Amino acid sequence: MTYGSAVLPGAMVLVGYIRKDHIAESIGQESSAPCALPSADVPILGIPACGMYHRTTVFDLILPRVLAGERIGREELAEFGHGGLCLHCTECRYPVCPFGK
């Protein structure tokens, strides 16, 4: 689990992973039985409260990568620190801007 990033808004983001066999056990399946989940680890994302109020947050940087199957860890979150400040431009040009680059 990784908590926090150098990106504003959204510095209090949480990224974690849970093993697929733990989920299968919690819903009553045997771990050796095939599970409908596609990968060994299932991502868990916690969005900070600013996700409800700001148009673009760190979640916009993380979600596409998670959906593409990338594993986000401390190093990846640290890389978002370069350009990790949303300037709240009048006309938002995300993703064609320095945010998260």
Protein model, in words:
- With 101 residues, this protein is of the alpha+beta class.
- The protein has one domain.
- Helix content is 23%, strand content 14%.
- It has 3 helices and 3 strands.
- The radius of gyration is 16 Å and the shape is elongated.
- The model has no long low-confidence stretch (mean pLDDT 81).
Structural features:
3 helices, 3-stranded antiparallel beta sheet, alpha+beta, 101 residues
Q: Note the total helix count.
A: 3
What order do the SSEs take from the amino end to the carboxyl end, as H and E? EEHEHH
- Mean pLDDT reading: 81
- Which consecutive residue ranges, at least 5 long each, have pLDDT under 50? none
Per DSSP, what share of the residues sits in E-state strands of 2 or more residues? 5-15%
- Based on CA inertia axes, which overall geometry fits? elongated
Query: Could you give the distance between the termini?
Result: 23 Å
**Biggest sheet architecture:** 3 strands, antiparallel
Assembly state: single chain
Which structural class best describes the helix and strand composition?
A: alpha+beta
- The helix content, as a percent range, equals 10-25%
User: Rg from C-alpha positions?
Assistant: 16 Å
Strand order of the largest sheet: 1-2-3
**Tally of discrete structural domains:** 1
How many runs of DSSP E, i.e. beta strands? 3
